[in-house]
Design a protein that fits this description.
Glutathione S-transferase Yfyf (Class Pi), Chain A, domain 2; 53% helix; 7 helices; globular; single chain; mainly alpha; 0% strand; 155 residues
Length: 155
């Protein structure tokens, strides 16, 4: 009904495949929520984004898959799809500042993800939706240009 699932069955399968492949990364922090000590929780999360950390490997994999897209949308669909919504909200929400030890700056080495962010954030339906939402701690991550300072630092 929202027009986020392709009508073509093959493309729908590619969207489902993309979401399934993305799911392990979306759970990257799951083991850290039970850590009560803030310093320990922060350290564990920071280690995820070190050179050989699971978070770093996950970001590289997601960026590679998006870079391979022939259309710029997840799963190479002609238009934005539900996989784009899944990646956009969870990936960029992860770097919103709401999670101890996970910093916006971790995205600086992923220009493909930053360009993808702007593609999705500027899609008219997304842009219109977030334009009408009042300021909240997470919403800045879904605005066009939210990570532009990181793109500029890569130039």
């Amino acid at each position: 009904m929202a027009g986020l699932t392709p009508e073509d069955p093959f493309q729908t399968a590619k969207v489902d495949e993309f979401i399934d492949g993305y799911e392990p990364f979306s759970q990257i922090l799951s083991g850290s929520f039970s850590i009560e000590d803030v310093e320990e929780r922060t350290r564990v999360r920071e280690s995820l984004f070190e050179t050989d950390g699971k978070g770093t490997k996950g970001l590289k994999a997601v960026e590679k898959k998006i870079d391979e897209s022939t259309t710029g949308w997840a799963a190479s669909t002609p238009e934005m799809n539900i996989a784009d919504i899944r990646v956009f909200t969870s990936l960029f929400g992860l770097f919103s500042g709401n999670f101890d030890g996970v910093y916006k700056e971790n995205l600086a080495n992923y220009p493909g993800l930053l360009k993808y962010h702007d593609k999705v954030a500027n899609e008219p339906r997304i842009k219109n939706h977030y334009a009408n939402i009042s300021e909240r701690p997470l919403c800045w991550t879904y605005q066009p240009g939210a990570f532009s300072d990181l793109l500029e630092s890569n130039s």
